Each structure stands twice: as structure tokens, then as C-alpha cells.
Amino acid sequence: MGAVGSEGGDVARAAPAVRPDLVALSGYHSAQVDVSVRLNTNESPLPPPPEWLAELTASVGAVEFHRYPDRQALALRTALGASHGVGPEQIFCANGSNEVLQCLLLAYGGPERQAAIFEPTYTLHAHIARITGTEVAAGSRSSDFALDLEEVARVMGECEPMLTFLCSPNNPTGRADTPEQVAATVALAPGLVVVDEAYGQFAPASALDLRSPDDGRVTDPERIAVVRTFSKTWSMAGARLGYLVADPAVVEACELVALPYHLSAMTQLAGLLALGYVEAMESRMALVTSERDRIAKVLAMLPVTSWPSDANFLLFRPESKDAFTVWSDLVASSVLVRDCSSWPGLTGCLRVTVGLPEENDLFLAALTESLR
Ligand code: PMP
Fold this sequence. Notes:
Layout (H helix, E strand, L loop, with lengths): L2 E2 L5 E2 L8 H4 L13 E2 L11 H11 L13 H10 L7 E4 L1 H13 L5 E6 L3 H9 L3 E6 L8 H10 L4 E5 L11 H10 L3 E5 L10 H5 L12 E6 L12 E4 L2 H10 L7 H10 L3 H23 L3 E3 L6 E6 L4 H10 L2 E2 L1 E2 L10 E4 L3 H15 L1
Parallel strand pairs: 3-13, 5-6, 5-7, 7-8, 8-9
Antiparallel strand pairs: 1-2, 4-10, 9-10, 11-12, 12-15, 14-15
């Protein structure tokens, strides 16, 4: 029923205005274009092992769909913890690592609190921060996109962030931060240092090592929280499963803000069974890294600037043509890459996800043609 006006009749009401601080935010969307080669969202080009799918299919019948799932996701957290040598109290699971990031920001961010980021980096860190009403303190990476510790010190001198986000390997620039850089950031930052390792399995080192009680490079390792996902190396972007490895107090804080039963029984089952296929997942990574290095070699011969990558994607900047024209040429050849040219610090840049060998061939042929 509509509202009753002063004359007694119904008057239509406009939809309420959204929060004014959200109005300026544009969504984080990768263009959805109908193409045959999709190299724009850093997924695994290969599906999960068929044995995993068969086991999942066989196990679905035992799921009690009329009941809520295990709210603690204890079996999954225990198995994940064991794979990292920690107990379930140090693991928090959610619907993709984006939901983990959101929970961290809900728990530790919010009005009158700050989160520090170093751009260019994964744009959702700042985006989710703003959605949760957290002020973003943005510093810059250096001109070669490495983490610049003087800049980290400068930002920490200007604010007291509850959360400092690093992304290693950094999306979209590709390189991993060294453990020494992460340790130095922990020493400079006052709050929790969140290391987003969505592509961590591709990297030479992990911030997880710094958390180990006998590592010793960080005096207070409980201030390091590492975020991981099943969306990339695990070939399970469609399952939506990510997790946090952190101090039990941080895990409890995330549980406080997560919705009850947020992680479905299917997601828990899919993740638990996947942990039985570590070798199959790792063999996929070998294909991706060799293809990545092959693409990098071809890029080096084209009129583009490209950057080394420790992940499953490569950032490059066409030098003879503007980025949007090249992006459009690629789309016309049915190849979709990510246009990062409007992201902070990335003028003129495009990012390509490593695909199957034949997809990469199509990308390289289309790019060569565009730049001819
Ligand atoms: N962190 C980084 C750095 C990413 O690139 C992505 C995916 N684009 C995510 C987190 C989110 O991944 P998901 O929610 O699928 O786990």
C-alpha cells in the first residue's frame, strides 16, 4: 500500500536514496563480453580434476539439505589448518576471499577507522573498505610496482590504520612482495597486516612462513593475517571458497561479523574434498607458469612494456597504440583481457590472464595483429 497523503489519497513514494557515501562508488566489474577466449578474471583455465567432481557428486546425496550446515565449518577448517600446520582456531572460511576481506573490514574497519593500501593494487581492498565506511589511506608502490618501504613509513606517519593491506603477488602488477618487505611493513604498521595471497601458490615465498613461531623475522606474528582462495590455483572460482589464516582472536572477530550459516554445506564439502587433490592442483600450476613465461617472451618482442609476474597473469602497456583501442581490437578477435587503464597508477595498461596454450596463441596472434 502507498503512503496516505494529506488529502487522504495514496501517494507514490520514491525509492529511498542509498547512503550518500556509496553514491560515488562505482562497482568492480570486469566487462562481460561474449567472446570465445576469456582472459580477464585470473581464473584457472582448467577445470578441477574429474576425480574430485566424481567424489563430490557421489557425496552430495549424503548432505542433509533440510538442515543448516555446520556453522563452524569445523571439518573444513581442521583440514585446511592441517594443510598449513595450524589448528582450526587459526582458520576462517568464507564465500570467496572477497568475503574474508569484507569480514576483516567489518570487524576492524568502519567509521573513524582507516585501512592503508599501496596502489596500484587489487581495487577491492579500497572498494570494500569504503562500503564498510572505512577511510582509505592510499600510498603508492614505486615506479616498478615494488613495495616502497619509505612510502609505507610515510603513510603510517600520517594515520593509524587498523588494517594495512598488501597483495602478494600483487594484482594486477604481478610481482610478489618479499618476506623481508612484509616483515618490515608489519614493523611499521600499527594494526593488522592483511596479506592477500589469492595467487600465493605461484609465489616463491609466503607470509605464512612469517607467522610460524620459530621464524623470528617478525616480533609479533599475530598481527599478520593471510588470505587465500580456492578460485585460482584450485580451479574452483565457481565454488566461492576463500579463507584466512590468522591469530585465533582475528578468526573470532571475523566469526562475529559473518552471517550465521554463511558457508553452505555444498561449499564446505567441495573444499574438504578438494584437499585430497593437492597434486592434481599443483600440476595445473606447472602448465600455467610455463605458459606465462612463454607469453612473457613474446610480449618482450612486441611494442609493449610488460612486467615480470609471479602469478597467473601479466600486466602490459601497449606503446604504439592506446590501451582501449588494443582492448577493442582483441575483443573484435574474440579475446577478452582486462582493461586496467583507468586504475590508479596504471594508465595505458592491460592485464592478460594465462589461459590454455591454444587460447594464449589466439591472444598473442590478435595482439600482434593489433600492434602491427
Ligand atoms: N584477492 C585478489 C588479489 C584477487 O585478485 C581476487 C580475485 N580477483 C580476490 C581476492 C577474490 O577472489 P575470490 O573472492 O574469488 O576468492
